[in-house]
Automatic annotation (TrEMBL):
Annotated organism of origin: Geodermatophilus siccatus
NCBIfam families given in the database record: DECH_helic
Gene3D superfamilies: P-loop containing nucleotide triphosphate hydrolases (3.40.50.300)
Annotated Low complexity bias: 17-37
Single GO MF descriptor: ATP binding
Helicase ATP-binding domain boundaries: 95-272
Stretches assigned to the Helicase C-terminal domain: 309-463
Protein name: DEAD/DEAH box helicase domain-containing protein
Pfam families documented for this protein: DEAD, Helicase_C, MZB, WHD_HRQ1
GO BP terms: interstrand cross-link repair; nucleotide-excision repair
Annotated segments matching region Disordered: 1-37, 793-837
InterPro entries: DEAD/DEAH_box_helicase_dom, Helicase_ATP-bd, Helicase_C-like, Helicase_put_actinobac, HRQ1_WHD, MZB, P-loop_NTPase
Length: 837
């Protein structure tokens, strides 16, 4: 990548102007953020530069309050020894609320000292009551281990803080249960290891004073709905032993924090949101790699890859002494970006720096993760390419820069990742590098969508029957359910689900309550898929390399797939679906692999509809059948398809929720698309809509799937469907239905503004299209979206009530649609995560 000059865009109102230029920093020290950006962009012709906008984030001064009188002199002394001389305002407010017995959520910025807000009241209680206990829950192992070290530095020796998770050796677990008074764990272990064995944990649970739920915004969608029920089960069991613990929640990025935390805990929660911590200035650049002469599927132009630009940026920043995290979108990309950065540094004669670059992701063995965390925290590593496994991870002091290789799926995650820089009270640099993707393209050219709006509302649906039913079974297996319990688990929805579970034979009704009728314990995967992770084994040696999420396995470790681990490339020799094992051998081919699939979708029950003249919007329940049927080999670097091979994998069934649009013949006529153009127009609009929905809901395009058809058998019309890729739904489709106009306006703007001629990955091509991105009609998609938006505007201008309508009250189309049967689809897929169990 050649160096470039940045565009100096005017910042939004209320922000500081971006400083021009800058003087070099002292020898050996990294430059401030604005100067770092100038340094890596210097020397490139204006017409080749990729920066579309530069935003200056202003400095914020601190506001402090005195320590509350109830904080012991001993704890104050330990805090002062760590450099905490006076607490910030939000720390005192949250600590006092918790001290007074209120459930509280601290929703302030990244690096604002939220840990202290819950550590101070919790440690004070432990000092006052030598029998009291604290349970700390984290969404990732890296965060849990970091917080364990933090509290160990403040706690009295009698507290004996310890971890109880999947990495804890069996011989240590009994010690933790008997002796630790600050237990660090995660929702998975609470669900599987603590609550089902509550009799063994009774001494801890009856003495439980506080429950800390860190980074609570991570609990969203199906996973968040499950975690909400796990916390309700915990409160129920604690009441059984006479305890009513106070819940302390923390999140840097959550909309409507009091409401979100209340839904999660199942009890009223007070929010503290006014941030009293200081914040150093930051330079935030939006960066879109330019189109190149290379072409992908069907001759579509390709941009320079976000991964390649991120790797070169990582090398540039490391070479300038800047400690940098590069966040990427997949495990494979983490390995690839780190290796590319090392290659750049070696080519520049900086092999010494190449050794200080590595990757970090979920799926590594515990000892590998621990060593990487130690090296990064100690400064032995200067640059790390990571998945979102470090988004909520260890407190890394002194990071100078963050590179985001692609939109992380939600604005909440974007700010969480960006906030990892700037902890040394020195101006930092954040660079968002847009991928070839509709949403990334939109954000790169609409800075107010990044800097001018609040984070998304957390989407959960605790009444999802695929969540509620299994959780009620878990609760009944722990203690018989009684009618008074059901209010916490959803009231009327829980009552109806209990009756269904009795009819299904899962629960048994007795005079004293409802009992679990199955053998053993209910086997419930709170991460939503219910599929066991697939183990990756090297065939020649039998060595365990790592794991892959079960829902991702068919597309990523099928026979013939390329798998990357710690920079080493392997090819899958055999994928045993039944045993959840993939056997691989080391190989470095000049190609990568992409899975192909087929999808069928049937409408089960539309429950809300909105008539818009010639267009109707619906949301409801659908059945999706998906099967991976083949994979392509694509040349590295260019994306050129080399060959396609069939696969024999079982189909997967999914009942979920969807939002869909139907267009009658009049709408199709107004869009001026003929029979030949209609399938490609709908397909292109579907792809773009899936790519943009994460702008409005806390989801990723890989959480979604879609189908488009010129004549759907269940609707009798041209139809575009977007569905949640989770059993029972996760609330994303309903969010699209509720925000239909905003969603489709952004979709139309993305497609129309893209500079390609006939469609590319930045607008209408999808990286996971089961039909190989064929057919696609970019111009037709714009015309179809214009018609839908025009009908929406007309309905709203006429004052028509856009609220829910009963589908049975909708009139059928005046004329029968033409007999068209072309169907295209985009399947949901995995989001990279740091599995904690």
């Amino acid at each position: 990548m050649t160096a470039l000059h940045p565009v100096r865009s005017a910042p939004p109102p209320g922000t500081d102007p971006l400083p021009q230029g800058g003087s070099p920093s002292p020898a050996g020290a990294p430059l401030p953020g604005a100067d770092l950006l100038d340094a890596v962009l210097s020397g490139t012709p204006e017409e080749e530069q990729p920066v579309t906008h530069v935003h200056r984030m202003p400095v914020r001064d601190s506001r402090t309050l005195p320590w509350p009188a109830w904080v012991s002199p001993e704890l104050r002394a330990r805090l002062e020894a760590q450099g905490v001389s006076a607490p910030w305002r939000h720390q005192v407010e949250a600590a006092q609320l918790a001290r007074d017995g209120s459930h509280v959520v601290v929703a302030t910025g990244t690096a604002s000292g939220k840990s202290l807000a819950y550590q101070v009241p919790a440690l004070t209680r432990l000092a006052e009551d030598p029998r009291a206990c604290v349970l700390y829950l984290a969404p990732t192992k890296a965060l849990a281990r970091d917080q364990l070290a933090s509290v160990a530095g403040l706690a009295d020796p009698s507290v004996r803080p310890a971890a109880y998770d999947g990495d804890t050796p069996m011989e240590e677990r009994e010690w933790v249960r008997r002796h630790s008074r600050w237990i660090v764990t995660n929702p998975d272990m609470l669900h599987r290891g603590v609550l089902p064995a509550h009799q063994k944990w009774s001494s801890t649970l009856r003495r439980l004073a506080y429950v800390v739920v860190d980074e609570c915004h991570a609990y969203r969608g199906v996973f968040g709905s499950h975690v909400g029920h796990v916390l309700r089960r915990l409160r129920r069991i604690c009441r059984r032993y006479g305890a009513e613990p106070v819940f302390l929640l923390a999140s840097a990025t959550v909309a409507e924090p009091a409401a979100a935390a209340t839904r999660l805990v199942g009890a009223p929660v007070v929010a503290v949101t006014e941030d009293g911590s200081p914040r150093p200035g930051a330079t935030f650049a939006l960066w879109e790699p330019p189109l190149t002469e290379r072409t992908g599927e069907h001759g579509a132009p390709l941009r320079r890859s976000a991964a390649a630009d991120a790797a070169t940026l990582l090398a540039d920043l490391v070479e300038r002494g800047a400690r940098t995290l590069a966040f990427v979108r997949s495990r494979r990309s983490a390995e690839s970006v780190a290796e590319q950065a090392r290659h750049v540094l070696r080519d520049r004669g900086r092999a010494d720096l190449a050794r200080r670059v590595d990757s970090y992701r979920g799926g590594y063995l515990p000892e590998e993760r621990r060593e990487l965390e130690r090296a990064l925290s100690a400064g032995d590593l200067l640059g790390v390419a990571t998945t979102n496994a470090l988004e909520l991870g260890i407190d890394i002091a002194g990071l100078d820069a963050v590179v985001l290789a692609g939109y992380p799926g939600t604005l909440a995650s974007l700010w969480q990742q960006a906030g990892r820089a700037g902890r040394a009270q020195r101006e930092s640099l954040v660079v968002f590098v847009a991928r070839d993707d509709p949403l990334d393209h939109y954000l790169a050219h609409h800075p107010r969508a990044v800097f001018g709006r609040p984070v998304e509302a957390t989407v959960t649906d605790p009444t999802n029957p695929y969540v509620l039913g299994p959780q009620l079974c878990c609760a009944a297996a722990e203690l018989p359910l009684v009618p008074e319990d059901l209010a916490d688990f959803g009231g009327a929805a829980a009552e109806a689900r209990v009756e269904e579970l009795v009819a299904e034979g899962a629960l048994r009704r007795r005079p004293t309550g409802w009992y679990w009728a199955g053998r053993g314990r209910p086997d419930v995967d709170i991460r939503g898929s219910g599929l066991a992770p697939v183990t990756i084994i090297e065939g020649d040696t039998g060595r365990l390399l790592g794991t892959v999420d079960g829902d991702a396995a068919h597309a990523t470790v099928h026979t013939g797939a390329v798998y990357v681990h710690r920079g080493e490339t392997y090819v899958v020799d055999e994928f045993d679906v039944d045993e959840a094992v993939a056997v691989v051998h080391p190989e470095s081919p000049e190609w990568t692999t992409v899975a192909r699939d087929v999808t069928d979708l049937a409408v089960v029950a539309p429950d809300r509809s909105r008539s818009l003249g010639t267009v109707t919007a619906h949301t409801g329940v659908v059945d999706v059948t998906n099967q991976v049927v083949a994979y392509q080999r694509r040349r590295l670097g260019t994306g050129e398809v080399l060959a396609e091979f069939p696969l024999d994998l079982p189909a997967r069934q999914l009942r979920t929720r969807a939002v869909w649009l139907t267009l009658d013949e009049r709408a199709v006529g107004r869009a001026e698309v003929d029979d030949a153009e209609l399938p490609g127009s709908l397909h292109a609009a579907e792809h773009a809509a899936i790519g943009i929905l994460p702008l409005l809901a806390t989801c990723d395009r890989w959480d979604l799937g879609g189908v488009s058809t010129a004549l759907h058998p269940d609707t009798g019309a041209a139809t575009i469907v977007v569905y949640d890729g989770h059993p029972g739904g996760a609330g994303f489709a309903e969010r699209g239905f509720a925000e239909l106009r905003r969603w489709l306006q952004a979709t139309r703007a993305t497609v129309a503004s893209c500079e390609c001629e006939s469609g590319c990955p930045s607008c209408v091509q999808s990286p996971k299209c089961g039909n190989g991105n064929e057919p696609l009609d970019k111009a037709g998609a714009v015309r179809v979206l214009d018609v839908v938006l025009d009908e929406l505007a007309t309905a709203e201008a006429a004052g028509e009530d856009p609220a829910d309508q009963d589908p049975a009250d909708q009139d059928p189309a005046d004329e029968d649609p033409a007999d068209r049967t072309d169907t295209a689809q985009e399947q949901p897929g995995p989001v990279e995560d740091d599995l904690v169990f």
